[in-house]
Amino acid sequence: MRTQREFELERLPVDPEKAALGAGPECSRVELDGVSLAWEAWGEGVPVICLHAAGHGSRDFKLLREAAPGGCRLLLLDWPGHGRSSVDAQSFTVERCVLLLAEFLNAQGWHSAVLLGAEFGAAVALNFAIQHPARVRGLILCQPAGLTPSVAHKPASSASRTLRRRTRGVLHKPLDTPAELEQELVESLAMKHALLSNQAALSVLALEDSLRMGLVQGVCPTLIVLAARSRTFPAKPLCRFLEPLLSVTPIEQPGLPKLAVFPGRYSPLWEDPARFAQMLSGFVTATAPLDGHRHAWTLAAADWPARGMNQWLCTHPGCYASQALPVEENPNRRKY
């Protein structure tokens, strides 16, 4: 039977425009330290907590969810003041979100999970792993904030969007890609998230040194995902920083990060969710504990899928099995 507090949480006012970026209307709620967080779960398998960018919402992972990565139970959270979550009396910072994430894990009864963070969410995921290494099976950092300076994104003007659409119409190409539609929706609500986005940016800036050091120290298996032509998170400077840290061998040294560079200029989560789901499935399989030795395949090429490679390695120490597969095939979806 529901408590009075649960009914009160359901009746919390929700900004309908912000809600469009967040969890669905049938989402679950959990009260943590005075904040009502909206969240929803999809799929079965290893828990993967999805942490969205500042000024966005758990809709960041909508296309990934629809791609249904095998072996993953996706947990999509709306940060305070975003989506369908309530506002918070405290500032929206990395440290505040780390605390709420720890309480969310406790509330679900999980000792550990894989963390998938986008932009600000990636900074939260990395900082959480630095503070609670035993609670993180692995990190997927998509266009992570805090490792190198990001570049302020200038939204496309309505005139340039109109010209682009007309050009595509003449060429009989889609007027808007899914990634462009997601970006336009986020930009349309930028003013409503301005204060939260500024608080988030300042908190990331204050933690840049510790985030870089945490990545260098290698607290857990880590995969960094970039968009090759992103203007906000340019790939070249981040790749220069990462180059001495990267591993392209089986994960015998768990702290060495791997890198996947996707073609595109927005978010790999939006531009190629099917390939992202394939990659996530392989990574999660490799980090999940297994009772006996069974090949746990993960992608081998450091720049996959930029060159269309689909080479897989077993990540168990002492096993050097490998295989090259057709470009769309994922060995972790096979039945043994």
Short description:
With 336 residues, the protein is an alpha/beta fold. 35% of the residues lie in helices and 18% in strands. It has one domain: 3-Layer(aba) Sandwich (Rossmann fold).
Report on this model:
The protein is of the alpha/beta class. The chain has a single domain, classed as Alpha/Beta hydrolase fold, catalytic domain (Rossmann fold, 3-Layer(aba) Sandwich), CATH 3.40.50.1820. The chain is built from twelve helices and eleven strands. Strands 1-2-4-3-5-6-7-8 form an eight-stranded mixed sheet. A three-stranded antiparallel sheet has the order 9-10-11. α4 (94-108) crosses α5 (120-131). The longest helix is centred in the first third of the chain and has 15 residues, at 94-108. The protein is globular and about 55 Å long.
